[in-house]
Design a protein that fits this description.
The chain has helices at residues 20-29, 45-54, 76-84, 109-130, 145-157, 176-180, 197-204, 235-245, 250-265; strands at 3-8, 32-38, 58-62, 89-98, 133-139, 163-165, 184-187, 211-213. The chain is an alpha/beta fold. An eight-stranded parallel sheet has the order 1-2-3-4-5-6-7-8.
């Protein structure tokens, strides 16, 4: 019975280098046999790649987070293309649209969001070119405009690239457009929070062939560790909670999510 933490940030400053070995050992002790660490800027790509080279069970997805587009050069794609051809880069991302955070100084919301959409489209183009899938972030203050806009861009590429919408929050009706395009949904520790009923309901109704689990660590630690620094070993708590909610044994849920992870990231183990 094994699980993959399909989305974590091992290059975060909250994970000092001297703690990584112990972190990975705790993951192994909790049946988390593999991790995908996500880059969010050009600056942290080398650190993420280095982690994959140092540890057999760590892989990477490389991209520019939407909140970093204003400080990323317009010709970023050539650099990202070179990095993304690394043999342990298994997806493009984390990319997407974030309409939650205000535009940085000197930017209007309109210009900031336009640049995010432009960069997201370029990430999709790169994913199609390299034959990799893509990891999407969306976040809104209210409503679901970033989700709708990301889905619209996804629809332009869905015949060539599969997207996972990570840290999916629900409600379940928001999943339909993603699933209709062949996309996946990934759930974090938020699904274990008492008040996150929409998230858990969405997970329960996500088809078995489209669901993955992730920590998004060091953020969003699940119950019973809520409020602490999150880490890949806590994937097991998310898996246990979702398996129970879906009426599955942990072994059944492991097989389901591992099949999905292997297919999405094109693992062949």
């Amino acid at each position: 019975m094994l699980f993959t933490d399909s989305h974590c940030h091992l290059a975060s400053h909250k994970f000092p280098a001297e703690e990584i070995d112990a972190l990975l050992l705790r993951a192994k002790e909790n049946n988390i046999h593999r991790m995908v660490t996500l880059a969010t800027s050009l600056e942290d790509i080398p650190h993420n790649i280095a982690l994959t080279e140092q540890h057999d069970n760590v892989f990477s997805a490389l991209g520019i987070h939407p909140c970093d587009v204003h400080q990323t050069p317009e010709d970023f794609l050539s650099q990202l293309r070179d990095y993304a051809q690394h043999p342990k880069c298994v997806a493009i991302g984390e990319t997407g649209l974030d309409y939650f955070h205000p535009a940085p100084n000197g930017w209007t919301d309109e210009a900031y969001h336009l640049r995010q959409r432009d960069y997201l489209r370029q990430h999709f183009q790169l994913a199609a070119e390299l034959g990799k899938n893509i990891v999407i972030h969306t976040r809104d203050k209210t409503g679901k405009q970033s989700l709708d806009d990301a889905v619209a861009i996804y629809s332009e590429f869905s015949d060539k690239v599969t997207a996972v919408f990570h840290c999916f929050l629900g409600p379940r009706e928001n999943a339909k457009a993603i699933l209709d395009l062949g996309g996946y949904l990934s759930y974090t520790g938020i699904a274990t929070f008492k008040k996150a009923t929409d998230t858990l309901d969405a997970a329960v109704h996500t088809p078995d062939d489209r669901i993955m689990v992730e920590t998004d660590s060091p953020y969003l630690a699940p119950t019973p560790h809520r409020g602490k620094r999150n880490e890949p070993s806590f994937t097991i708590h998310i898996a246990e909670h979702l398996a129970q909610a879906k009426g599955l044994s942990l072994e059944e849920f492991s097989q389901i999510t591992e099949n999905n992870v292997n297919k999405f990231f094109k693992f062949h183990d």
